[in-house]
Structure formats: C-alpha cells, structure tokens
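Throughout our pipeline, every protein is held as a single compact record rather than as scattered files. The record that follows is passed on verbatim for readers who wish to inspect the format.
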Amino acid sequence: MSRVTFRERARYWFDNTMSKGTASLIGWLALISLALILIITGLTLWLAPGEPEGAGGPGAVLWIALMHALTPGKLASDKGSIWYMAVMFAGSLGGLFIVSLLVGLLSNGVKMKVERLRRGRSRIAESGHTVVLGWSDQVFTIIGELVKAHASQRGSVIAVLAERDKLAMEEEIRERVGDLGRTRVVCRTGRPTEPRDLVLMNLAAARSVVVLSPEGEDPDAHVIKILLALAKRAGIHPPVVAALASGRNMAAARLAGGPLVHLVDSDDTASRLIVQSSRQSGMSVVCMDLLNFDGGEIYLRPAGLLDGKTYGEALHGYHSATVIGLRTKAGIALNPPMDTLIGPKDEVIVIAHDDSSIWPAAGAPAISEPAIVTAERAKHAPERTLLLNWNGRAEQIVRYLDGYVAPGSVLEIAADHPKAGNGLSGLENLTINVKDCDTTDRFALEALGLGLFQHVIVLSDDRYPAHHADTRTLMTLLQLRDMQTKLGEHYSIVSEMHDENNRALAEVTEADDIVISDTVIGLLLAQLAENQHLADVFGYLFDSRGSEIYPRPAAAYVETGEEIGFPTVVEAARRRGETAIGYRMAYARNKPPHYGIVLNPDKTRRISFGPHDSVIVLSER
C-alpha cells in the first residue's frame, strides 16, 4: 500500500477544517482577505511608489488596500498611474469575490441558526409542567382538557415533543384547541425515543408525562420504546401515563416502563364503553361528563367528619357534591354496601363541579318521605342485539357483551366484512347469527327486521380510512333513524366513530350514544395526568364486575309529577342499595351536548319527574 503523500495530508486537513461549519469558512476567508491585502500593498509599494498622493507610508497604503477589498466601489474615485490603477482594480476585483462569499456564508449561517431555533432545540426551563411525548389527534383533546383544568392557575405550562416542525405544531394547536387561557404550550422538535431529545423536556422538574400512541402500523412498539428511554434516563422520574392500542402488549409495556407508569388499554376501554352504552342509553354522555373538566369531575377527599359513619349516611354528607364510593386499604369500591363503615384513613370518592366547592352539609337533608316509591327491581331477561359492521375490536366487544346479558340472549351480526363473526367460540350467554349485509343499503337493513331488537350497535369498518368509515357510519345512522321514525320502532342505537368533528353531523340522526374512541382515550389520559389515583376509579367504572351506571325509570324511585329535591332521590336509591348520581329528562334526550343528563344536581333545586324521565344510579346488575 502506497504512503500518504504530503499533498494528500494537506488536502485531508483542509477538508476537515472546511467541514467545521460557518465559523471555519469565515476564518479561511479572513486568511485569504489578509493575503490579498498584503499582496496588493506590496505590489503598490513596488510598482507605484509614492502613490496615491498623500499616502504617508506602508501603513496608509495597507489601509487603502483594505478599503478597496471591502468596498470595491472606491475604485471609481481613484487617480494615479496605470500601474497603481491596475493593482487597485485587481484588489477590488478580488475583494468583490471575497465579500460576495462572506455575505453568502453569513446569510447561510444565519438561516441555519434560525432554522435550528425554529425547530426548538433549547432546553425547557420550567417546573411543574406537563410533558406530552408523541403526536396524534388525541393531543388536541389532552391539551384542551388540561387548559380547562389549569384555568385558575397562573403560569401553567404544557410541553410537547414530537417529530414535527415546531411552528407547525404550535399553529395546529392554536387552530384546533383555540383559546389557551393562562396556559402556555411549548413545542419542541425531536424524537421521544432519543434520550438526548428527552433532555429538552426537563423531565426531572415535570409534574407528569403523557405518552401518546402514534398513528400508523405497530404504534405500541413506538410507545414501548419511549417507555424504555424514559426508564433508562438518570435523575428524578415523574409519573407517566401511556396509551396502548392493544392489550396484548400490556405486559411488555409494564416491564419497559416500571412501577411509575400507568397504562391505558385503548381498545379495551373503548370496547367496554361501547358495550355499556349499548345497554344503558346515555352511558357515553355520562362517562364523557365524568372524564372531561367541563362539568362534574371525580375527586378523592379524606374522610374527615364522615369518619365512623356508614357509606349510606355519607350519601347525604356533602352540600354540593355527590358521594359515589370509597377508597380503602382494600382498594376502590363504587356503591359499596350501605353499612360499610368509613375509617379515619379512608377516602370518599365524590362528583363535584370544582374541588373548592366540596364542603360538608349543614344539618339533615330535606327528604320528602311520601314521595319515595318502593318498587321491585326488574328481572334480568334475555335480550336481542344487532351488531352492524366489523373491525379489530369487534370480537372483544362481543365477549364483553356476553358477560353482561342474561342466558338465552341473541346477537345478530350483519356485515360484509370477510372476518365478521370469526373467533367467537366459548360464549356462555349469547347465541350468534351472522348475516352478509351492506349496512349502508336501505333494503338490506329493512330485511334484518330491526323491530325485533332492543339494542343496535354500529361499528366503524376498519377496511376503510377513518374519514370514509365515519361517512359510512353516518349513512347507516340516517337510514336507521328514518326507519325508526316511519315504522314507529323503539331500540337504542350506539355508534362508534373516529373523528370528533363528525359528532355534530351525527347528532342529526338523534342516535342515543356516539362513542368517539380517540376522544375518550384522550380525556382519560388528561384525567390521569392530573391525578393518577383516579385510574382505579375509572377502571372500576368501566368493568363489568361490581356496580355500574344505570339509567332507570324515575317512577321506580319517586312519585312522578311532584316537586321534590334531589336528596329525596338519593334516599330512595339508598334504600334499594344504590347510589343516585343524577337524572335524565326525557324532553331533552336529543338535545346536545348533555342530552338531558344532569350529574351532581343542585340539591336545593326542586324538580318534577315525568313518566319517561330517568334516575341515573350506580347499582349492581
């Protein structure tokens, strides 16, 4: 092998210096400029001694050469011999090229610096901020809810790190979320899976971290990689909340994230909500009200004055809050037995409009004893449910539905999806029938005999993009509502959609419940980012075991047509072993955004229930 020559070494050294950036290039230009000025000065002193007129020696000539190199326009005012003019022309011409290169280098260097600043690469100097890692449509729901939660806090900050342009993220957030109030949103461009980019978020001083499941193929692998990067970093580890698309990856995510990570199974949560909403009209609205920061929120409060009392007595223990359960050493229990004693270290779970409005009730509640009705609970009878369309979570939905219904219940699956009805062996209570059907075709829907069913579930078809699938769902809902109206049939309808913007369009169909799965998960992540202790509460609420939310006829609790206070309803439900949390007025059941549902109502307000109104309770099936 031949030896490296001096010329090759010099060129290698020169290439290395040139690759060091703008500063190195400017340094080379400075050296070239100095060489040019010295050459021009020497040539002037040699070829045109004594020129220009009035020059006081080599120093003055050096200054004149420098001015000609930096300001080529000075050549126009020069006077002297042909040799002097030729040398100055050469100096001005060389200076013209040098100045042009210098301006270009400075312009490019400034542009690169601005681009770097534009991407947001400085470390966040905040504390107590909420960090969001990743980007999906859920980010707008999360930021919007955190803005509401921090409305009364000054200096609240939400920091977002994603592989997107910083300015584009900020502009889209302003457009989709709107007024941010007192909350500042700071965006940084980077990869959440890279430890050097996570440093930008100042995680050691953060209040909590939310990891989003990105759109595209295999999103859970991306989430798990972020959890690994968070777990491996040194320093203080704030609580982390992450969403997974599939429950099959929960074990790997728990191992990657460690004990401080709370995981939300997106498919599981959405499936449970769809099933519960299909059987209890208004369930999705109730859950959305509990999950968002607009109205009633769930809080945990120390037992305080309720220490030593029973849960049944605690139901009347707060003036403007509604008790729904207890948190003890044994865990979370919603609507526990009425004789459960409250210990000094227990916490009471309540629904309130604000944590500052939770204070003990003064005196005994005003209960209208004659208005309380004693009625037997309706028996759990077999049901007929129609499932329209099919997707990846449909099997899970069917299995959850099997755990709710009475033996002998029937589920008809109508879809033209090639996988419709697959993998449904081992069901205990449901009998499955599968029919090939285009769910957007009016005649195909009429042939199903919808009047035979008590519940209809319309799923989003996963063979189509999200916006197209939502459009097909809207078409199906319009057909169902028109058939209901013309044929006078009565059955509940719950539909699944992707885009929150389609909710307003779907409201035209007057569907009983619309489940926007991405929005539900976003709301849940926002709640857990604020208070991870609520994870067990919402997990209990969405589970088929224990007490659940049920809307039941108001006539089964109180006399209709009489003005009473809500404490009377609470007492009537207590005697049945249930917890009343609100009511639904029939006249507003199709009026958004609450569809007639009132949670944690004003206990001093007098209300009169009609025959079609409902009381919303937590109860065992």
